[in-house]
User: What shape does this take?
Amino acid sequence: MELIYEKSVKGRRGVRLPKADVPRAAALPENLQRREAAGLPEVSELDVVRHFTNLSRRNFSVDTNFYPLGSCTMKYNAKVLENAANLFGQYHPMTALLPGGETSCQGSLAMLHELGELLAEITGMDEVTTQPLAGAHGEMTGIMLIAAYHRAKGNRKKYVVVPDSSHGTNPASAAMVGYEIITIPTAPYGDMDLDAFKTAMNGEVAAVMMTCPNTLGLFNPHIKEICDIAHEHDALMYYDGANLNAILGKVRPGDVGFDVIHVNLHKTFGTPHGGGGPGSGPVGVKKALIPFLPMPRIIKAADGGIALETDNPRSIGRTATFYGNFGVMVRAYAYMIMLGKEGLIEVSEQAVLNANYIMSRLKSHYDLPFEQTCMHECVFSASRQLKHGVHAIDIAKYLIDRGYHPPTVYFPLIVKEAIMIEPTETESKQTMDAFIAVMKEAAEMAEKDPEALLRAPVTMPVTRLDETKAAREQNVCHAGW
Amino acid sequence: MSYCPNTPDDIREMLAAIGVAGVEDLFSPVPEELRAKSFNLPEGMSEFELFQRMRLLAEKNTQNLAGFIGGGYYDHCIPAVVDHLSGRAEFYTAYTPYQPECSQGTLQALFEYQTAICRLTGMEVSNASLYDGGTALAEAAMMALRVTGRNRLVIDGGVNPFYREIVRTYLANLEVEIVEVSPQQGITSRPALTAALSDQTAAVILQNPNFFGSLDDIGDLAEEAQAKGALLIASVYPISLGMVKSPGEMGADIVVGDGQSLGNPLSFGGPSFGFIATTKKYIRNLPGRIVGETVDRNGKRGFVLTLQAREQHIKRHKATSNICSNQSLCALRGLIFLASMGKEGFAELAKLNYDKAEYAKEVLGAIRGVSVLNVATTFNEFTLALPKDAAGVVEGLLREGIAAGVPAGLYYPEMDHCLVVTVTEKRTRQEIGALAKQLEGALWS
Assistant: This one.
């Protein structure tokens, strides 16, 4: 398909602007003038509409395809959330910071405050900041809070401990805050090796970052013990909330002993993923960390109204320009109050049921490196298929031809030829049965006709793409204007 | 209501296939003593009841405040096509394009977005978006520290105070020295900046137009920084690039900004997107995702995520950034906005902003006792010196339903009489006249 720039015709115009109802001002001084207009496309409105409509048709999405991308929780995004969010559309964030401005945006502030309270109850934390703009941003904010906490006690410490099964963002976030990383291997039983963990712990460890259930979809039965050991060394426990969809109403990280948590609203609380964002990653903390929360902090004032606290010298400062991805948070808030207590519990129960169903139906055809009851996702290995020269990626590409977005492949890194499947609670048995049948078909083809899998996909606008060429040539901007 | 479709029969069959008696058995890996101690949430509701609830909440906001406030977020027109096209479910409910063959829509759009950012800023390479303007500036600062191996930053006081705070927060644990240079008369002070610059400076950070609205040809500052081996980071307001010389032409090494004004609603501060662009030689130091052009097995053009070896899911703690989810959909909105405006339309939009602000500056500056602080040219924001404390004036006018501007004293205590006023293409001559009348009333009645 042509690029929008290749559809450009000199002199063609799209949108019409508001009238110039004021006199034309003098030109800018010469040294500030742009000599040549930026090379934006010159297209009509219909050109724009056709172009982007046709581009959109080259995507798989939750609304068009089963999308069991493990670790991403690609659940259905309820349409009413869009209607609800539109009610809050055009409101300037600076209004709240003007003198006397808080009174004019009590609706928006109250929503943020209530969202924080709901998340605190769901996760067992004492207070939540809505400022972080995505999961990884929440992790970084959380680790900054932990650094501030330790520094206030005299030593910010040196290390952050992560299991080798963790999301890559965990060590990357800790490194952004200046910590060195200690990586703990996974034991044969599928959880962080407890002995290795005990050996690694020392007084210079600031935090331990855990995902529970972990990226293998397994709930760590030793999680309480891990929290206790960390606390004995005056290290804080960080909970990566990426997999929260598995435990709503069942487990609260705060009850278990975690001190800091981020929640990916775009995963657990049903907001659309937008082709890679915007997300939202509010962070919850226990009491001891509240003094360090980012500013502005959204608080309940003495008169019952919602106010912004902007002058706390102990705060880590500001991690985003305003109050977080408000538009995402409105949707998540609406989702939470619509589902309510029973609905949210059902989410986790059905998510776990669906994942175990797929696991039990596919284990005859694919290796299951850690065979035990899983939570919201299950991780297979294509090692059996590899004997026939078929990799996980080949199975993924075949699924595309059959109309399924592939599961996550090659993650977690600790499983060879990993295939990580997260169906979510919003998929039916019938959808999963059809998917299971195609997965079995792929396994059979790996034995009988591996070549066919290596050719896939053949039904898409493009066949497999040359990633090496892309990395070598680094053509990231269209030339020629 | 939980959107779970399985019927009791489905559930029975699934449990049988798994070989357990009930769903609760699947939670057996969770020890009893770790079960939730509380889950005190309200009862759920239908979507109809939800909509009513949300409407009541939204109505607690005072609507239709005539807006002359900016400070990083701007009230611009958004063509209807932006909502309609970005709202297409195939874009909206997809995720990161890890599987390129079934994600060419998102990938090509992001490639086109990167191209638009390069052309606006006059730079060679752009990533596929960051979170927002402030965090993009912090990422740029960290990038400069990596590139130069130095640990000192010089940041101009005219950079948005929130952005400066974000940079300080991001770097608080990294043993970096940050030197802030105070602006003079609303513009970067050359002597102060020269004095702050040393051969240990990783980057000089400027904003153009700056917080007070002043435009500056920063070419000389870029040369001066580069002569000392430092990078020049420019934070820019994208709409101004319709008529102002691009930061690339001025010699910047890294350009960042907030994309809210490109087709993203004010939405109480988010989501928008941050952009970052640089020169080819620094591409491997860029944070976040980058889309690259390539070919498929038949030689047909296609697009993929590229240079992923910089990123956290491969490099873990050695990655250039921890960023994973970015603001793809908002970047897509930016692209659709720019395509709708087009080459001529975008230049016209910038001129319209400039003309209206110049008019407002003249009208407001003519009020008795009021003067314009900026000695430099301004774009669509300018700073007035009032004969009274600006915070009190703003508070009073807010009660009358008009957001007159941002009191500079909130962030620059010595400037308590100054008011930063923003005028976009959406403000009419009549609204500007009304603001002048009300401001005059607030000052003199």
Summary: The longest helix of chain B spans residues 328-365. Chain B touches chain A through 210 residues (CB under 8 Å). The two ends of chain B are 57 Å apart (CA to CA). The first strand of chain B starts at residue 66 and ends at 67.
